[in-house]
């Protein structure tokens, strides 16, 4: 039976899907998307599945064969050990990440966080410390929070490992990567990160970010983590552009 207060709320202030604008039933509390999305949009996610590159995690378009390193990773190995994403960067997840980052709806972590947590459990159970891709203090002041840090908290809690909060830092202000070409992204983040006092030596680091696009940012972060003595650097993102 519907709570009278919920009925009144639905009548006066109907909850709308953040993706399509359709109605969302307040009584529905069955999945991680029920607070923000209608049934159709909440299920509109595209898991990244094999076959895929065993290094960068990109799925192969033909959808056949075994997992193996892609040509790019063989010809120019990235600084990290392996990268994985839970879902493709499209549809509802893409909208959720945009709302989370640019409209500053922190509650959206309730939808995205479990995706990061599931990825940590499924892909990198041997990680022994987590870290988030950091924001420069100027951008952090403007946005008010680091979206990747919230996601890293979910992943660290799932694996029951410590979360290193400030060992990896962004020491140079950079232009938003979304504005740049692939080559410009590489140049933009060069020398932008440093390890300052974080104990990563001999550790298997789980580096967490929201989206893997070209990989320029996580490659640069991985480079400084490896220089600081990290045994392995695993890259975990909620979504990946394909």
Question: What does the secondary structure layout of this molecule look like, with pairings?
Answer:
Layout: H1 4-12, H2 39-42, H3 71-75, E1 82-88, H4 91-102, H5 109-123, E2 129-132, H6 137-143, H7 147-159, E3 163-164, E4 168-170, H8 182-189, E5 193-195, E6 204-212, H9 216-227, E7 232-240
Parallel strand pairs: 1-7, 2-3, 2-6, 6-7
Antiparallel strand pairs: 4-5
Let me know the number of strands.
7
The total number of structural domains is 2
Pick out the low-confidence regions: none
Structural class based on helices, strands and sheet pairing: alpha/beta
* Level-1 CATH class name of the largest domain: Alpha Beta
Task: Summarize the main sheet.
Answer: 5 strands, parallel
The overall pLDDT, averaged over residues, is 90
Question: What is the fold-level CATH name, i.e. the topology of the largest domain?
Answer: Rossmann fold
Return the CATH architecture of the largest domain: 3-Layer(aba) Sandwich
């Amino acid at each position: 039976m519907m709570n009278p207060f919920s009925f009144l709320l639905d009548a006066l202030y109907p909850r709308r899907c953040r993706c399509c604008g359709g109605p969302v039933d307040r009584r529905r509390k069955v999945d991680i998307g029920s607070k923000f999305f209608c049934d159709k949009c909440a299920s509109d996610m595209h898991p990244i599945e094999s076959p895929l590159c065993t290094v960068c995690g990109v799925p192969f378009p033909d959808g056949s064969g075994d997992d193996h390193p892609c040509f790019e990773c063989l010809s120019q190995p990235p600084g990290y050990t392996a990268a994985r994403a839970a879902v493709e960067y499209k549809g509802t997840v893409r909208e959720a990440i945009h709302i989370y980052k640019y409209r500053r709806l922190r509650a959206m972590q309730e939808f995205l966080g479990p995706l990061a947590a599931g990825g940590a459990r499924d892909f990198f159970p041997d990680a022994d410390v987590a870290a988030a891709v950091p924001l420069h203090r100027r951008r952090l002041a403007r946005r008010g929070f680091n979206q990747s840090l919230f996601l890293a908290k979910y992943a660290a809690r799932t694996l029951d490992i410590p979360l290193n909060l400030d060992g990896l830092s962004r020491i140079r202000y950079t232009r938003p990567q979304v504005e740049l070409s692939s080559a410009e992204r590489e140049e933009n983040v060069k020398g932008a990160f440093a390890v300052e006092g974080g104990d990563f030596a001999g550790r298997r680091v789980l580096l967490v970010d929201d989206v893997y696009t070209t990989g320029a940012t996580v490659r640069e972060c991985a480079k400084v983590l490896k220089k600081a003595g990290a045994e392995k650097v695993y890259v975990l993102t909620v979504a990946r552009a394909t």
